[in-house]
Fold each of these.
Amino acid sequence: MERVPILKIGQILLVSIQIDLQDQTVQVLQEDLAERIVRTGARGVIIDITAVDIVDSFIGRMFSTIASMSRLMDAETVVVGMRPAVAITLVELGLSLGGVRTALDLEKGMRLLGASLPSLADGR
Amino acid sequence: MTAPPQEPVPITSGDDVVRVRQAVRTAAAAAGLSLVDQTKIVTAASELARNTLVYGGGGHARVERVTDARGRAGVRIAFGDDGPGIPDIDLALTEGWTSGSGLGLGLTGARRLTDEFHLDTEVGGGTTVTVTKWAR
Ligand SMILES: Nc1ncnc2c1ncn2[C@@H]1O[C@H](COP(=O)(O)OP(=O)(O)OP(=O)(O)O)[C@@H](O)[C@H]1O
Ligand SMILES: [Mg+2]
């Protein structure tokens, strides 16, 4: 099974999904992230799905789980780069992703985290 | 023109679910579906393949390109398993109902995302779900 790498940039953990996600990979990613948040004291998580061509109920639920989980550990999650076709499909599937913050791209996602946590923006 | 029949894709692991998605993507693109429609049928297929694996105990997906009487192209996928079957179809097709730990979105979502949806099931006799999406 492939693993999704987690990069640390300042106080942010960046997860850029570049592979076809199977369910077990999703589960392991959630656990890896929880562990990394605690170990690094990261204050923000960005999940970049620019390269993801479908989000089904299992992957969608991962976003909600990571968002709630990170909040409990004092970190904010933003999902960035959702493709228009993916957004249209998610709505029709019936998944609203309530509670998950989104931004159009990585830069806007960084800014969103920076705005709610000013110390992130300048790396202090 | 009818594309040559494809070998059924076995569904016995999470990796197989990914392979089903890829086969459906290829067939949907070849049938000329728009990017949004490709995304819809691949997402529906992902839900149904997972059901085949989780509830059906594994099975297979038959992916084919089809043409209707008016020459319209489409893609059809039949998911089959020899699992326990679904005792109450209406309940299973109720949004939000799950017998497991899901969201109960798979079947209703797949029905909304496709143009045709057929569910054949018998308790003790397995389940077949067939979905079709036509090019516009
Ligand atoms: N192939 C199958 N064999 C037996 N039962 C099935 C099969 N597919 C679906 N079911 C039953 O129908 C229910 C509803 O399926 P559906 O895909 O809508 O939701 P779910 O799989 O429970 O949750 P989600 O898909 O949102 O993760 C399942 O909980 C299961 O009881
Ligand atoms: Mg399901």
Amino acid sequence: MTEAISLTVNGRSYELAIPPDTPLLTVLRNDLELNGPKYGCGLGECGACSVLIDGMAARACVLPVSVAVGHEILTLEGLASEGRLDPVQSAFIEAQAAQCGYCLNGMIISVRALLNHTPRPSSAQLRAALEYNLCRCGTHVEILEAASRAVAISTAESPEAPHE
Amino acid sequence: MSDRQPPTSRAEPTELPAPLASPKRFGVAVRPPHYAWNGEHFVSDRLVAVDRTSVAGLPGQVEIVIEGDFVGVVADSLAAAQDAARHLRLEWRAPSGAGQGDATPLPVATGAASRELAAEYAKTASSHRHDYGWPSRLRWGDTPGWVVADCSDQRLMLWGETITPEALIHDLMTLTGLPAERIELYGTTPTRVSGLGRHCGDDAAVDAALMSRQLGCSVAVWLDAAYTRDVHALGQAQCITLSADLAESGDIADYRYHQAHASGDIAAVGLWLCGRPPARRTVAGRTPFFSPYDFNNAQLTTRRDDHGTGRRNEHLAEIQQAFARESFLDEVAHESGQDPLMLRLRHLDDARGVELISSVSQRARWGEALSSATTTSPDRLRGRGFAYSQLPDRHQRIPEGVRSAWIADVEVNRITGDVTLTRLVVGQDAGPEVDTDRLQQTLQARVLGSARPLLGRDPAFDEWGDGSKDDKNVDPTPGGALAIHTAMATKESADAEATTSLLQPLDDVNLAPGVAVIANALFDATGVRFRQPPFTAGRVRQALHDQADSLQEETPGRPTNRPGRRWLKAAALTAVAGTAVMAWPWKGAITPINRPAANLYSAETIERGRLVAAAGDCAACHTVEGGQENAGGRAFETPFGTLYSTNLTPDEGTGIGQWSYAAFERAMRHGISRDGKHLYPAFPYTAFAKISDTDMQALYAYLMAQPAVSAETPANALSFPFNIRPLMAGWNALYHDPSPFEPDPGQSELYNRGAYLAEGLGHCSACHTPRNAMGAERSGQYAFSGAMVDGWEAPPLNRLSRSPIPWSEASLYDYLRHGASSLHGAASGPMAPVVAGLGELPEYDVRALAHYVAVQMDAPAGDSETVQADAAVRIATAQSGPAGMEEGERLFEGACASCHMESGAPSFTSAQISLALNTNLHSQHPDNVIQSILGGVHADHVPGLGNMPGFADSFSDSQVVNLTAYLRARFAPDQAPWRNIESRVTTIRQHNNSPSPTPNATTRRG
Ligand code: FES
Ligand code: FES
């Protein structure tokens, strides 16, 4: 049964009539045509579908859309602001950290979520944050490299960030 | 929660001193387990020890205030104080006889004084004799509110609504030793000051003052249904015994009036507990008696000592006397077959009084029968009453005093017990001018009041909501449609000053007959005599039921066993049944009826029914997935075969549209369908038999008001002998007890409400109690000891609980209200829709359920530090997995860990609560774990709870087995490994019809 659902995605609000238990991922990709989040496993295992909800990472494939109502959803598409890429995005481009690129959405979102919470993570913290993001191409070394670069860029951009 | 802001919003901000407008701290009084006023003394448990560590570490800067046996918990917010109060561990001792002058054994009998009197009066055998009581406390009204105190050595400021400011100030003086002029009351509306007695807002005020005084800052107390305990504990304040004989002529002779106390109001509970009771004294001088009548040989007596009050309250005495006398005269009139109005006129030697009464009776058309055409629904009973008084004029303007005659019409809703005052004709002989509007307003405010102290609600075990408007599901206000028509029959008084109206404000004396007139009208409507106010819906309803019971007992030749009495009750109270059925056949069809008209029942009855349906969760079983609500057809696998739930919509062909109430009630209580067939006990009629009549009627009303859906129920497929329905009669005889729920008088109101919901409507035992080979719930020690239902384990709800962290009442509440407890996990499987259904219920009901289950489990109120530390240790231990279970570990890390383990950054989709605390993983049975892995957890109808995907299509049987074993070893290391995982996986796959995926299926997404 469909219900009226209002969602806030990338700062815009949407009014939708959909079954409330539809996975958020399906709504983002099919109804809002936001294809940054990818469909990987559909079971919350791989992280390809990650989005930010209230600044925290969330696996959109296992989240009924009704649960996201009233929260701020940010997808990969919404990361750049005023025409400038997010430092994490820049870092991944600079490091060319992709083989096929399918996992990149999840990697970028997870690093962003970590930086939101811990602005200057140690490399152990970086690894832990990416532990449950799968990459089928085995690009892990480059991805970790990109993640460290993202930390460096964002630290440089915000020198007032507290020291460890 | 917006109501729970400090009182600024309700106060006049300009006048309110800052400490009251924004209180610093919030307090909750914690009462002893037992305390009571027994008619002579206040007795309570004694505080022995306070365990302050039990609240250490709780948020909100918790402080404990102890004074004698008074305990208060104060914190930065109401929520923090309430939470700390739940966690606080106190040790109490019952008062022992030795060395305690005041102590009498508990439980306390109220009305010791009246027993004494009864003995005294037994000697005189009057033909008419009745006792009338007056409660020590009235309830405070419909809406909870704040009481704020700010107390220093210099002065006490108090914000709160009292209707007895004099008594409150007296108590506060006793408490603080301050003179009256140093005590400032704010927020009290003069028009609501009534002479009817104290309400428990005064107890809250003294609590706030006690806490504020000790802490030296302002303290706010939330006055809500919790204070109803004080109302019950303080019991009866006054008892008046009246007796009379009738002469041949019908005249009253030998009229005797005795009152047990010189005056009756009882000091606030806090004062008694903190050990500063008011001084006892004998009241000097004669107790004034007020009576306009001339009786032959009248005797008026009272006891002199003024227990528990320390002050005399003449206003209250006048009203109490008028209530007792006017009720008694009404009773004598009815008992001797006289017109109540005429009986009074015969004893009134006062021309002006006679003139006033006849004028009022003409205006009200006393002699004419009430027209039933205006009755709004068949649930309603109507009646009319009369009362009269002549009392001294407090302003000394009229030497003869004020005469006042009242005629009231009431309407009683016999289902809900609500009383509506539909018309009031009041005549008074005093003062030149009467401002009708003002009288009407004053009556509204004082006799009914927005606080409605007389007709308000009183919580009972089957009362919905706690009477506070902050509950979304509170019953609609019956007084909403109140219309008072005041017809003034005034008479110039020669001595009255021409310019001043006596209604500035209306003197209390004028209200004296107001209570009796309602009692008399209630009697006329229902045949039930109320000899003590208040006339709350719960009391009225109970009285109507008792009356039906006693009618039954008086009927000769009628068996008086419970089922028989119930039927009569149903017949007497049911308009829908139409005929006065005295009993229905055990078997055999009940004649079909046309579907009752949708507007037959009032909106409030239907709303009550909606709550009943939510608590009983009818839709969970009577709706197929994705189907129309309550249209039936859902399949149930039982050990005896497959059963299908039936269509509960009022469709005449396939639903219950042709079911009369009698048929419906028989099905609910006895498991017999309208057509006479026995139903199977998968339908929990064994629990539903406990539902109260009122709730049953409301449920019927609700179901009949829903849209009809035509849906045939599939035929059941049962194995022998269960496919032979008549055998179920034998089953019923063996296993079914259709007796209704009886509240346990030794238990609290909260417990009884919880028991009613859990044992009856909620039918918890249908799942949580094991069944014997015949499918009957086992009793005694087996009650609530857990069972397997529909492929899931319903865990034990008693001391057998295997939860790794023992449950507390607070955790149970969180689980039932929010669907998850941080120390236990989230509701899943068949429990998820149950919690979703509970979301419809008022907060008080969920609290009651949690309390009842906590008692079954012997669980503490809150989670101690030890328990929390234990939880932390369990979580830490489970950080790494056991060695040698590679396959399980790989599966866990790949599929589960992303949500079930911490990754260092907060995640919106993580499973918040560690598996190390999960009850299912610590159970004897792996079933719920397997079910969750295969089917996932879908609790999205509980707000704030996420979803876990099912892995039935991606894991093979052996993967599920390996993962389950691994989870057990890692997260329940203190439990023995499960032995039967493989066979359970196979069975559950079969049961759920979800076969192990073929290799193709697992790779389909590739
Ligand atoms: S697609 Fe959502 S976690 Fe893999
Ligand atoms: S780059 Fe292909 S999945 Fe990671």
Amino acid sequence: MAKFREIFRGKSKYVTVRAEAEAESVKKKQQPSQPPKEVPDGLWTKCPQCGEMLYNKDLERNLYVCSKCGYHFRIGARERLAQLVDDLDTFVELDAGLVTTNPLDFPNYPEKLKADSEKTGLLDAVITGIGKINGIEVVLAVMDFHFMGGSMGSVVGERVTRAFERATELGLPVVTVSVSGGARMQEGIISLMQMEKTCAAVERHSRRGLLYISVLADPCMAGVFGSFASLGDINIAEPGATVGFAGQRVIEETIRRALPPALQKAETVFANGFVDRIVPRGQLKETIGKLLLWHVTERPLTPAEAPPGKEQGDAASQAEPDAAREGRGGKAAGEASGTAGGSESQGHGTRSTARQTRSQAKREGSSRGAAARPAERFVTVSSAGGTASPANGASRNGRHHGDTPA
Amino acid sequence: MANGVFEWEVPLVELEKRIEELRRFTHDEGIDFTEEIATLERKAEKLRREIYASMTPWQRVQMVRHSKRPTTLDYIGLIFDEFIELHGDRTFRDDPAIVGGIALLDGRPVTVVGPQKGRDTKENIRRNFGLPHPEGYRKAIRLMEQAEKFGRPIITLIDVVGAYPGIEAEERGQGVVIAESIRRMSFLRVPIISVITGEGGSGGALAIGVGNRLLMLENAWYSVISPEMCAQILWRDVKRAPEAAQSLRLTAKDLLELGVIDEVIPEPLGGAHRGPEEVAASIKAAILRHLSELDRLSPDELVEDRLARYRRIGAVAQASQA
Ligand SMILES: [Zn+2]
């Protein structure tokens, strides 16, 4: 922790964006990057899902996904950032020096904070900052489960809120990666209030017409799922992630029987209509990058250039709910989404034609629906697209997120 | 607790019984115990103050779970001239764990929403012990947006252990609905006053508790987690709930000090169930007072006021230079 703190000590409220002094990268500052908790030191790691022995170097190269079964290992905020942004050297962290003041004087809380700081090198459970994804500037908030279970107290609430406020000021999109057990008990009611703060900040950002992509990784629960993590224009979950509001034990104690094993799996939550897509880690950056591009490009397009069939259900997302229904968990989802990757990579060629304004995108999507070009060339951003039959796939459900229940 | 009496109340209740007996004796047998009764009554009054003035947070948590504690519908009946209940989320079903509708507050139409516990076992089963499903929160959002449309103030009365932790609740998106409710409530362009009348259980309470003003009854609690669950998670021991209740700082007095609520509404000694009319009158007076202040704000100002109220809550500092 000493290292991290030294680097950011004495910084003002906001780190000046792209100031020369800040050019030093988070990567350099934080080296050596600590391996994820699930991946022990040593040469080999055993996959907890399939038992395969994985060579650590390969595992890292494969973004901490089991090459045999597709199991997604839990990763820290720095590993996640390194996977998502183009270049950590240009990532500028915001509000790095914020720490909690233990508002309730909760017993043993300072000790716990200190221990987790030393363990992770972080001052709290989220890193926020400005970086580029596929060349597009974006505000990021990436949580770290290894710091007090990724729980949201004052610091997480404040950093996430300021991240959205910063993005609103600068007119930038936001990408969050939520990995959290929920609100932090040790800050009691103050933690609960962070739910309102973050929701309000998301809405203010949204009212400026700016894009918010929320990534839900394992686990995304309770007060974080019950606030900003649910409110993305586009919600993406990692395969096999546990996503839900109430904890398993609380539910089991209430209903006095065991939980169906797949109830809070990302694939089930997807099938129930609360996330737009399940995206394997290997395709996460590409998917986010493409979505960003489709939203931020200024130059309006002629109707001929605009991509048709944007809202049409594609074959890949048809496959995903089936996987969930059969309760096959992470493995099946990985395979199913792997299919999705195939169609997405074909979409590359359409990038130049995908330039259009947000409003035009909506217009085109609604007025033209499924038109001339083959639908599989486009990423479908629609939860209902996955369950609707191709025949009525032109519905615009992706824009109605959260309005209607499953 | 036996017969609606908490163990810490037993000495007082026994004293009250003795006074009652002496009175009966005086009446039935014609023996004069006036002096003894007066002495015992002074003693009882002293004991009453001692017991209720020094209630621990855990005792308060138990007190608001008293089976005779007034429920949301009881308060609605006592506070408002008239109430027309409206039902359903227009999507899935009507959730009896949340009630809502239009009421007259001194002749003025307002929208009232709140979780509803049962007053007996049968009603508790029907109302799922006042634990709302997603459709309950959707009904609440619908009624609050209806209030916004017609420029009606919104009063939410909150007494809820939490959002229902169940399979169907998860399947129907409990987390998403709570986030959505918080987001929409934050930006409603009418005055919102929330009153925690009993239990304020975490996100399930916040989802209908984003107000311009947040008031709390003296014995109510409001926390990110119930003391029992906190003790279970932290120490794997539910029996340590009293300790958790202390550490969580969940009482009305604590929340006032922490700057989370605006006002503590007093209860009669021994709790709201000992004087529901008196408590309802105090709630009504507080609502009217705060509403008259909020009536001076424009719709934009109301939203700004509400957002600013929550925006400042948080305990952060810059890391030390050392
Ligand atoms: Zn594996």
